[in-house]
Amino acid sequence: MENTVEVDPRAAAVRRKSSAGRVLQTVRKHYFLYVLLAPALILTLIFKYVPMYGAIIAFKDFSPIKGIMGSEWVGLKHFDKFLSSPNFDVIFMNTLKLSFFGLIFSFPVPILLALMLNQVRRAGVKKNVQLFLYAPNFISAVVIVGMLFIFLSPTGPINHLLTWITGEPLMFMSEPKYFRWIYILSDIWQGAGWASIIYVAALANVDPELHNAASLDGANLLQRVRHIDLPTIRPIMAIVFILAAGGIMSIGFEKAYLMQTSMNLPASEIIATYVYKVGLQSGDYAYSAAVGLFNSVINVVLLLTVNFIVKKLNEGEGLY
């Protein structure tokens, strides 16, 4: 005979009330911290969660005159249109390749920079090197792309050197095969130094006595980096990698759009630029919303998948 446990409703209500009282007591005790948190929370709700209401137009034949609720419901019509369009394969693969190769080649660079900076013992030299590495991050995408067009133009300094060596210039900004590598390498140059800050901060907490003890035991530089520095930043590496992989389909629109030319379009047309063109330029808001929502869903799936894999490989340490 199975034993049945009866739950007293009054006891459950008392527990809920007690739990709510503890939460309220905590809020009252640390009210100043919640006041500091409130502006960021309010801005996040206004600019991140409230606009989600507009995603409904991805499932409607949206008309600005009828409004969101008044427009006709069409279900997955726009998603089917995008998935069956002749441009889907090219746009999707361009986005995936640009993001994937960008992640693979750019992720290790900040870590290597941080490890090298950590070996610089003279504070003045270290600060000057850090300033030199961080500076490109504050240059706008418009200026970066302008510099690329100047340096890589047929009459630019790089092609002057190539012409002197090979006898003919290369059309870097026109040929599709060069677009992806120019985009990735310029991204690394611009952002690697700034991305290394978090690793440099983590390595600053390493006790110097650990390195001294390891040196006395005969450990060389690479062994100390492997067994002391890398384990220190491994949790941060895991979180940064998960976030980067979760946003693998979210390439910045501005730089890709500025680098586009009519001749490199087969390699430079990505989901972000496609959404801009069909949404704002062509006025097909519902279709562009569906494409953007499809991109967001892919990112969420990738985030969950990568987080699960990293937790399995990293002793249960992941994003959540």
UniProtKB/TrEMBL annotation:
- Record's keyword annotation contains Transmembrane: yes
Name of the protein this chain belongs to: Aldouronate transport system permease protein
What the record says about family reads: Belongs to the binding-protein-dependent transport system permease family.
Question: CDD domains this protein is in?
Answer: TM_PBP2 (cd06261)
The subcellular location is: Cell membrane
- Signal peptide boundaries: none
Its membrane topology: Multi-pass membrane protein
**What is the protein's species of origin?**
Paenibacillus favisporus
Transmembrane region(s): 31-50, 98-117, 129-152, 181-202, 233-253, 285-310
Principal place of residence: membrane
Pfam families the record matches:
BPD_transp_1
**Domain ABC transmembrane type-1 intervals:** 92-306
What keywords would UniProt list here? Cell membrane, Membrane, Transmembrane, Transmembrane helix, Transport
Among PROSITE patterns, the record links this protein to: ABC_TM1
